[in-house]
Specification:
Layout: H1 4-17, E1 25-28, H2 39-47, E2 50-58, E3 61-68, E4 82-89, E5 94-99, E6 109-114, E7 120-125, E8 131-135, H3 141-144, H4 146-149, H5 162-169, H6 176-181, H7 191-201, H8 214-233, E9 274-278, E10 281-285
Antiparallel strand pairs: 1-6, 2-3, 3-4, 4-8, 5-7, 6-7, 9-10
Helix pairs in contact: 1-8, 5-8, 7-8
Bound molecules: zinc ion.
Length: 291
């Protein structure tokens, strides 16, 4: 599943590729890909003719600004031509593809968008859990998208710090690994980066959240940011079937400390990396480096 660094990589690709993109035509191949009220009927009607401006990311959600008419580049999200938001969640296997020339639509194509030149932005999703919304200008996206309403702070924001995490974890019995996967605690972290940041912080994933001392929480905060930053720099992970708009996978993976390395020697101390299931997800750790 794409996590924060992969979604950020896709965001950058969309921002770059869709500069000045005006939706001349669009087609929905799979109804369940459209999650906004009114389904594909309203989605198609409202999105046709709009131009795509800047892209933001909130947790694992992609948020595109839409405008009436052309020249979306020069407009701010608060301009009078602003015409709602295009929100996308990739879920398990959703990916965007850019096709400058007309190509055959693959069977997993869920939604396609064309500009006047016939260039196509294609949303492909094998498992078909990915979702997109058209959010009307008068409505806040949090009002119709539950995941956005309940989402915790961004890991890179000022709101995510030691005192916030200490307060949020206080008295909690659930293992810290499970807590990190909870999007209401912190946005965007997932299995890979939870395991990697716990290794970096020297914390056993099974540790009850409320047992962590302030020093460990401080380390965890900075470790999570570091791991995410490194992976964003690599264009996302090599694991899973994540692809950016040009069809390339990320490069983060070669340097993973524990993730998908069970049975192999720890890169730091040589102990054998262990693996177990936690919260239904494969969890990897070094029994010697993590206490
Ligand atoms: Zn080790």
């Amino acid at each position: 599943m794409p996590e924060l660094p992969e979604v950020e990589t896709v965001r950058r690709g969309l921002a770059d590729r869709l500069k000045g993109f005006q939706i001349n035509e669009l087609k929905v191949f799979r109804e369940r890909a459209i999650a906004s009220p009114g389904g594909s009927k309203v989605f198609i009607k409202m999105m046709r003719g709009l131009s795509v401006g800047s892209w933001e990311r909130r947790g694992k959600y992609l948020i595109g600004n839409l405008y009436k008419g052309k020249n979306s580049q020069e407009q701010s999200p608060r301009s009078k031509n602003s015409f709602g938001l295009w929100v996308v969640h990739l879920r398990m296997t959703g990916q965007f593809q850019w096709h400058a020339k007309k190509t055959i639509t693959c069977p997993y194509t869920r939604v396609s968008f064309w500009n006047q030149k016939g260039e196509e932005l294609r949303f492909v999703d094998t498992r078909s859990f990915g979702q997109m919304w058209w959010v009307p200008p008068e409505i806040a996206p949090e009002d119709i998208i539950n995941g956005l309403r309940t989402m915790g702070p961004e890991p890179f924001s000022n709101a995510f710090n030691t005192s916030y995490l200490k307060k949020a974890l206080k008295g909690k019995k659930r293992p810290i690994k499970n807590a990190l996967l909870d999007q209401t605690l912190v946005a965007g972290a997932g299995n890979i980066y939870a395991d990697e940041s716990l290794f970096r912080a020297g914390i056993l994933p099974q540790t009850p959240s409320g047992h962590l001392k302030e020093e460990a929480i401080k380390k965890l905060c900075s470790s999570l940011k570091e791991v995410l930053e490194i992976s964003i720099g690599e264009g996302g992970t090599t694991f899973s079937d994540f692809r950016d708009l040009s069809g390339a996978s990320g490069k983060y993976g070669g340097q993973a400390w524990v993730y998908k390395r069970s049975g192999q020697p720890c890169r730091k101390c040589g102990a054998t990396i262990r693996k177990n299931k936690m919260a239904g997800r494969g969890t990897h750790w070094c029994p010697s480096c993590q206490k």
